[in-house]
Amino acid sequence: MSSSTETSRPVGATAQGEGEIACYVYGIVPEDVNISPYAVGVGDPPGQVRLIRHGEIGALVSDVVVDRPLGRAEDLVGHEALLDGAAAEVPVLPLRFGAVLTSPEAVVGELLEPHHDEFAAALKEIEGHVQYVIRATYGERSVLHEILADNAEARRLRDQIRGRPEDATRGERIRIGELITQAIAAKREADTQTVVDCFATCTVAAVIRDATHERDAANVAFMVRSDQKSDFEMVLGELRREWADRIDVRVLGPMAVYDFVASA
Amino acid sequence: MTVTVPSGGGGGLPDRPSGSGLADVIDTILDKGLVIDAFVRVSLVGIEVLTIDARVVVASVDTYLRFAEAVNRLDLEQSKEGLPELIGDVTQGVAHNKSKGVAQGVIEAAGEKLHDYIAGTVEEPEPERRVRRRSGG
């Protein structure tokens, strides 16, 4: 066992036996938070989460073994679950997945101390806010019916490929597929704007995310103040009713304000 | 022992984080959030972390052909849309964007797990108050 507490181990130096332990950082919180002993994060088994304090702020960290790659599904989910659980209770500045520093001393000396004032100010700013993501997806049948109804060229191509083998109609198939993709992109732009406008009065800020699925109708992150939640919920209900037959509307959250901290 | 009871009111916004699928998690935590700046990065340990671009290629010939087939089937049968397609997209997009190596193995493993998550065989993490204000007791 090599459990000497050197403060600055050289990068890449390996302890014998088990892999070297480093400090995985999840996010920044105010120093006056309590961490449940059941709070765990990334790793196998999941590392116990603790707080490293400095001044008014602290970093949520857990030990992580360096010689094993990170990024299993459980690691990704563990990272977000810890942060989202925290964000529901306290202000959190979430770090992007995969931030690892060599030691607790490095977390203080290289992360908390140099950025203390800006982190503390940012935490005050986001106090009482959480993030929700509106994820809207076109139903395949309904969106195809819409496009065929609106577009004569699409109907013509549909008639050409109908019931005929793929090999014989490849050109037509690619053309109709491209046309549908373009039509969906146009719809997406309009429907994304609708989402942004609908929620404008009951949210603090919005970030439009890139589409990640071909039938995405809207993918928008909102920063929501606690006193806006009931209005947000009401607008969500209205939107779902309005889009019931066309678009499936999911809401993710409450989560940490991932989409609103990157610019720092 | 603490038992967390899900709040049963309304049925609108969840009070606690709702367990989101792995695809949603990937969208959220891989390219968003604070990044430790370049200066600090120097002292990051050499741990291999996936930095995949999990973006699905939104416009490709495969997509076009799939839409065409969906149109072809439109009046003939109930189209089977849904998650298996999404899984394919995510894992495929990953494989395209990542050269061989540990990271890819990791991603493939994540892809397999994605099936498990969607099939409901892996339990979603139980939301619980694990980090809270000291004064809030």
TrEMBL record, chain A:
GO biological process, one term: gas vesicle organization
Highest taxon above the source species: Bacteria
GO CC terms, sorted: gas vesicle
Cross-referenced Pfam families: GvpL_GvpF
Keyword terms of this UniProt record: Gas vesicle
Record InterPro entries: GvpL/GvpF
Subcellular location: Gas vesicle
Family under the similarity heading: Belongs to the gas vesicle GvpF/GvpL family.
Protein name as it appears in the record: Gas vesicle protein
Taxonomic lineage: Bacteria, Bacillati, Actinomycetota, Actinomycetes, Streptosporangiales
TrEMBL record, chain B:
PANTHER family from the UniProt entry: GAS VESICLE PROTEIN A1 (PTHR35344:SF4), GAS VESICLE STRUCTURAL PROTEIN 2-RELATED (PTHR35344)
Gene Ontology MF term list: structural molecule activity
Keyword entries, A-Z: Gas vesicle
Predominant place of localization: other
GO cellular component entries: gas vesicle shell; vesicle membrane
Protein name: Gas vesicle protein A
Gene expressing this chain: gvpA
Similarity-based family: Belongs to the gas vesicle GvpA family.
Pfam families for this protein: Gas_vesicle (PF00741)
Function: Gas vesicles are hollow, gas filled proteinaceous nanostructures found in some microorganisms. During planktonic growth they allow positioning of the organism at a favorable depth for light or nutrient acquisition. GvpA forms the protein shell.
Oligomeric and partner information: The gas vesicle shell is 2 nm thick and consists of a single layer of this protein. It forms helical ribs nearly perpendicular to the long axis of the vesicle.
Locations listed in the record: Gas vesicle shell
